[in-house]
Amino acid sequence: MTATTDLTLDVAAIRRDFPILEREVHGKPLVYLDNAATSQTPRQVLETLDHYYRHYNANIHRGLHTLADEATAAYEATRETVRRFLGAGQAREIVFTRGTTEAINLVVHSWGRHNLGPGDEVLISRLEHHSNIVPWQLLAKERGFTIRVIPVDERGALDMAAYRDLVGERTRLVAVNHVSNAFGTINPVAEMARIAHEQGALILVDGAQAAPHEPVDVVAIDADFYAFSGHKVYGPTGAGALYGKAHLLEAMPPWQGGGEMIRTVSFEEGSTFADVPHKFEAGTPSVADVIALGRALEWVDEIGIALIRDWEHGLLAHAHRELGRIDGLHILGTAPQKAGVVSFVVDGAHAQDIALLIDQLGVAIRTGNHCAQPLLHHFGVEATCRASFAAYNTPEEIDIFVAALTRVIGMVR
Ligand code: 7TS
């Protein structure tokens, strides 16, 4: 099989940045196609972590000594890097979190708890990851608001006509992912924001699967909140961010209390709180991981997110074409706008068996419900196999994956 993409990304040079891609699994070269779960880490990010711990490991914002000053400067410089990466207007609109899950929980517990009550509605799409469903359900129990679900069509694209009908005067917030982790659907979030705003509702965009793959501009989208995870965009685990419009963040109460988020603390008069974004960053953050996340975003910038997107779209088209030749294989998620994720089931072969056997051939794909049970149940399946791509993947790797899959299907049928 020949690789057929005519794009110009220097994938050989990119691969040299990732030491892990040289390892073998079960005696075979690793083919890593589980990037939607977590991406691999380039040496520039590894070196940033190493350099931090060797040279300026210190707690931030508190120490009046050189190491603390250096750590604080690098941490705050990353806020500016994230601002640029997301196209936000101001660095104080960026709150560091552990990742997308924590960013969504921040909005739920701070904005949600203080703005939602009986009679209010939150719209969530059927495409959501559990982390954009369950926190809302937990709060709905406590506050008595209603969750309504934006349906999908048979391709796994959002039903925009139904969305327009659902958004009404009771709608307070729309929570939707930018890109679906299970199917790869790219959602028209700017249009969804416009429709939400016409009705006076806010929109929270879960960008966990968009930030690594698509150019993001929170101002152009007009997102009120935008969340992403560093570990899916070539950064380390433990650091991600929430973007929030300044006036919203300012009006929101703290959600976690502790050091660094206060201005004054008194037993007699209670406490007063720091300005945004520090009001939302209680305790010692994952300083090294935040700084290394900044380096990861710079790495993405050095290559160019548009080039990464185009490369991955080429990989996706190649994968769709080659998988389409396998008898009895069904791709779930065929929306016209898709990022580099392909989910599929195979007649007569359990997804779990496929993943286990294909791992023996060195290929890492994901099986299961991808933390999107409502979506998979809607399509009548409990699990799919999912291959997801990153900048370092190649058409040749997809060919190896497809050949391995063909072999495995022959074994289990
Ligand atoms: N939202 C989306 C759309 C995601 O894909 C994920 C993780 C999350 C939120 C949660 O991110 P976290 O970094 O806070 O855990 N998605 C996946 C996945 O597809 N396979 O493993 C994790």
Features:
alpha/beta, 17 strands, four-stranded antiparallel sheet, 17% strand, seven-stranded mixed sheet, 40% helix, Aspartate Aminotransferase, domain 1, Aspartate Aminotransferase, domain 2, 413 residues, binds ligand 7TS
Question: If you compute it from the alpha carbons, what radius of gyration comes out, rounded to the nearest whole angstrom?
Answer: 22 Å
Low-confidence stretches: 1-6
Mean pLDDT: 96
CATH architecture of the largest domain: 3-Layer(aba) Sandwich
Q: Beta-strand percentage?
A: 15-25%
List cofactors, ions and other ligands.
ligand 7TS
Shape: globular
Please give the number of β-strands: 17
Main sheet strand line-up: 4-10-9-8-7-5-6
Q: Please give the domain count.
A: 2
What percentage of residues falls in helices of 4 or more residues? 25-40%
Terminal CA distance reads 24 Å
What is the fourth-level CATH superfamily of the largest domain? Type I PLP-dependent aspartate aminotransferase-like (Major domain)
Largest sheet: 7 strands, mixed
CATH topology (fold) name of the largest domain? Aspartate Aminotransferase, domain 2
**Can you identify the CATH class of the largest domain?**
Alpha Beta
Give a description of the structure.
This protein has 14 helices and 17 strands. It has 413 residues and is α/β, with parallel strands linked by helices. It has 2 domains: 4-42 and 304-412, Aspartate Aminotransferase, domain 1 (Alpha-Beta Complex), CATH 3.90.1150; 47-301, Type I PLP-dependent aspartate aminotransferase-like (Major domain) (Aspartate Aminotransferase, domain 2). The strands form 5 sheets. It has a 7-stranded mixed beta sheet with strand order 4-10-9-8-7-5-6, with helices on both faces. A 4-stranded antiparallel beta sheet has the order 13-14-17-16, covered by helices on one side. Mean pLDDT is 96; it is low at 1-6. Residues 36-37, 99-101, 129, 131-132, 177, 181, 206, 208-209, 229, 370-371 line the site of ligand 7TS.
